[in-house]
Design goal:
heterodimer, A: about 350 residues, alpha/beta, 4-stranded antiparallel sheet, B: about 325 residues, Rossmann fold, 11 helices, binds adenosine-5'-triphosphate, binds iron/sulfur cluster, binds magnesium ion
């Protein structure tokens, strides 16, 4: 990271889904900040709230979902200019009108999902779709826009660009479609890209290309990236910092090296220890006993307490807050983190 | 003692017709001249891009595909050997019992309309291993117990289980005939890391307690490294490199292995930071029309010369137990 300017501060997001079976308490106070130009990875077991976090911020939740509390403070002058906001300070995304939010999603933020078809319009050629964004964004002529679109298609390594330009989404492979979605992102030069399992459906080599492109997008426009994935390998490769989520909140937030070497939240410790590593061969892998909790009836207090070996009385009563430990840049939400650190130091620093 | 399984020069082609007026038959060489040995109680890992033939290789070993040519010999502990491809009915029974497979997708490989006691009991029926219903049920219960599931769940249906539990059901089914070899096709690709750890531990425990050999197919290099004694790297139906796990991971020789290693993200930031990145150009070529010469030459970063374009290098031993098929190492 070249600079450490904050792009967005997410504070205390609380999101619920109202279903026939009951209220799903999907997010219970999600907190994190995001720097300009960084890749923040959100990791955690299935159902922990990674996608819902992204959708809440983008304000794209299903009708049954509602974000009850929280702020997403955005520090981006260009966005303010586009929205015609002249007041000082950051903009809270939750305070914008629907119309403003539509603009924000067009220019400032974009979402790349596992299934690129959801972001593409099946009745227009991919070329038309890229041109549309360029025209809106840069106000260029039809001819100029087309020229730029072809350049973008070439940039995502789809050749010959003229052939790809006239194709409809269904005429392309999954990997090709994903690259078109990325080229549309490139066209908008967004300040923030959410990539939710962008390569899960792709093969390793195409995965490498797509990850490379996301990296490029970041470098070219100093965009920030929120990368959501199960794959800790991808996280180790592409992220700067990692937010570990458990049952609806971020329980640890720190740079990737520290997280893999010295995770401090008991859940992160379990998660990291369960991954087979190349640098050390172990006979058996650690794992976290118990199951992911039901979010209609989540555990009280710290939602991890039924599976936690460190749990004490207070863990059952009150949810711990995300706080800095050891240094300002290492945040952990755990009542007993001091004990965790003591145990680690006894073992000689490394963990897992 | 001879290796448990000796595979020599097997080929599995899929044929189909293209063309509207004049139909022409094409061959897709999914497995094209593959040889290896599987030793007792050892794990051979198989890695390679999607479509390179890993699953086809596995299915050929368990006789779901009949190979075009080549031989597969099963050398049993009692000294007898079975020529798997030309086995008679009696021998075939032994082969079915001895080599089992756990399939890639736990959702589609378990019959959704059957309670799991029928799913796990099917091989017991086919191989007539139990004398009656009672004995069969007690075998099923023991198997469920072996894979860490509750025996009283045997009347439930697959959809009532989580992804990790379904993997265990597939495993219990494979264990039913007490096999010596199990082909594990991407056994953890559909589950979370913490569940993956449990499944991998279970596989290792079972391998020890039941003295089995595994052919372990996976995309995940960390997982293959964790599980395997040896690794075979496949490209377009062929093995291009073969050797001890540590050799393949730490000292890869084939340009494709190097590229693949560099493309596969490893959950270890320090390793990632030092990793040399080799960009593999293009996609896997059409398997119906594979490139002439070395099949990898169209994407190779080290291409040594005209030879690569015209002649196909053979898999040759370059150091003890480390084989590679590449002209660079041919002297
Ligand atoms: N539309 C919805 N209606 C009801 N519940 C929902 C809805 N969308 C998500 N949820 C619930 O919210 C919780 C968080 O889901 P989310 O999709 O964010 O998980 P995730 O971390 O992205 O998981 P995965 O890794 O499987 O994608 C889950 O318990 C999920 O069941
Ligand atoms: N039954 C079949 N009929 C025709 N072609 C087939 C058949 N099964 C596989 N193929 C083809 O054979 C090649 C090898 O397929 P295979 O499933 O063995 O690949 P794989 O290495 O297991 O890939 P993945 O990693 O995606 O599972 C592919 O080109 C595939 O399309
Ligand atoms: S707060 Fe308590 S229950 Fe939660 S992780 Fe820390 S010790 Fe465990
Ligand atoms: Mg998700
Ligand atoms: Mg396969």
């Amino acid at each position: 990271m070249a600079e450490k300017d904050v792009l967005m501060e997410v504070k205390n997001l609380v999101t619920r889904f109202y279903t026939e079976d009951g209220v799903v308490k999907a997010l219970e106070g999600v907190n994190f900040n995001l720097y300009k130009g960084e890749t923040l990875a959100l990791v955690g077991e299935t159902g922990c709230g990674k996608s819902v976090t992204a959708l809440s911020i983008l304000r794209l939740l299903a009708i049954s979902g509602k974000t009850l509390e929280g702020e997403a403070l955005f520090y981006d002058d260009e966005m303010k200019e586009k929205l015609g906001i002249t007041t000082d300070g950051p903009v809270d995304l939750f305070k914008l009108t629907k119309k403003q939010m539509l603009k924000v999603r067009g220019f400032t933020m974009s979402l790349i999902t596992q299934d690129p078809m959801t972001s593409l319009n099946p009745v227009y050629t991919v070329g038309e779709q890229i041109v549309e964004v360029i025209k809106l964004h840069k106000g260029l002529s039809d001819k100029e826009s087309k020229k730029q679109a072809l350049k973008l298609i070439e940039e995502v390594e789809l050749t010959p660009p003229e052939d790809i330009f006239i194709k409809y989404p269904h005429q392309l492979s999954g990997g090709q479609r994903q690259r078109i979605v990325i080229s549309i992102s490139l066209a908008a030069e967004p300040a923030l890209v959410f990539a939710d399992e962008p390569t899960t459906a792709l093969d390793v080599t195409i995965q490498a290309t797509v990850l490379g492109l996301l990296q490029q997008l970041k470098e070219e426009f100093n965009s920030s990236l929120i990368l959501i994935t199960h794959n800790l390998g991808i996280v180790a490769e592409t992220s700067d910092r990692i937010g570990v989520m458990y049952a609806g909140s971020v329980v640890e937030l720190v740079d990737k090296y520290t997280l893999f070497k010295r995770p401090l939240h008991p859940y992160s410790q379990g998660l990291i220890a369960s991954v087979p590593k190349i640098s050390e061969k172990k006979e058996t892998l650690n794992f976290i006993p118990g199951n992911v909790p039901n979010l209609i009836h989540p555990p009280s207090g710290c939602r991890f307490h039924p599976r936690c070996t460190y749990a004490t009385d207070i863990c059952k009563k009150k949810a711990p807050e995300l706080q800095s430990v050891e240094n300002d840049d290492h945040l952990v939400a755990c009542w007993n983190v001091k004990q965790v650190i003591k145990d680690l130091d006894k073992q000689g620093g490394a963990s897992g | 003692m001879k290796p448990l399984l000796e595979v020599n020069n097997i080929k599995k082609y899929f044929s189909f017709q293209r063309g509207i007026l004049r139909k022409k038959t094409f061959y897709l060489k999914a497995v094209d001249d593959i040889s290896f040995n599987l030793e007792r109680k050892k794990t051979l890992g198989v890695v390679g891009e999607s479509g390179c033939g890993k699953t086809t290789l596995g299915k050929t070993l368990v006789n779901l595909h009949k190979p075009e040519s080549g031989s597969i010999n099963l050398n049993l502990d009692d000294g007898t050997s079975i020529d798997v491809i030309n086995a008679n009915d009696d021998e075939m029974k032994t082969v079915r019992r001895t080599i089992q497979m756990v399939f890639q997708d736990p959702h589609s490989s378990l019959n959704p309309r059957w309670p799991i006691k029928n799913i796990i009991g099917e091989p017991i029926d086919i191989l007539k291993m139990a004398s009656g219903r009672r004995e069969k049920e007690s075998m099923v219960m023991k198997l469920l117990n072996d894979v860490g599931l509750k025996p009283e769940h045997m009347n439930r249906y697959p959809h009532e289980f989580s992804g990790g539990q379904r993997q265990r059901i597939g495993m219990a089914r494979a264990l039913a005939p007490k096999p010596d070899i199990i082909v594990l096709d991407e056994p953890t690709s559909a589950v979370d890391v913490s569940v993956q750890a449990q499944v991998l531990n279970l596989l290792k425990e079972l391998q020890k307690s039941k003295s089995m050999s595994y052919l372990f197919i996976s995309h995940d290099l960390g997982v293959v490294h964790h599980m395997s004694n040896e690794i075979a790297v496949m490209y377009l139906g062929q093995v291009v490199e073969y050797g001890d796990t540590d050799k393949i991971i730490n000292d890869p020789l084939h340009p494709y292995t190097k590229a693949l290693l560099s493309a596969l993200p490893v959950p270890d930031p320090e390793f990632e930071a030092h990793k040399k990145r080799i960009i593999l150009k293009g996609q896997l070529p059409d398997a119906i029309n594979p490139p002439k010469g070395c099949r990898f030459h169209t994407r190779c970063a080290e291409l040594v010369g005209e030879k690569c374009k015209h002649d196909c290098p053979a898999l040759k031993e370059v150091s003890k137990g480390h084989k590679v098929a590449c002209w660079i190492y041919e002297e």
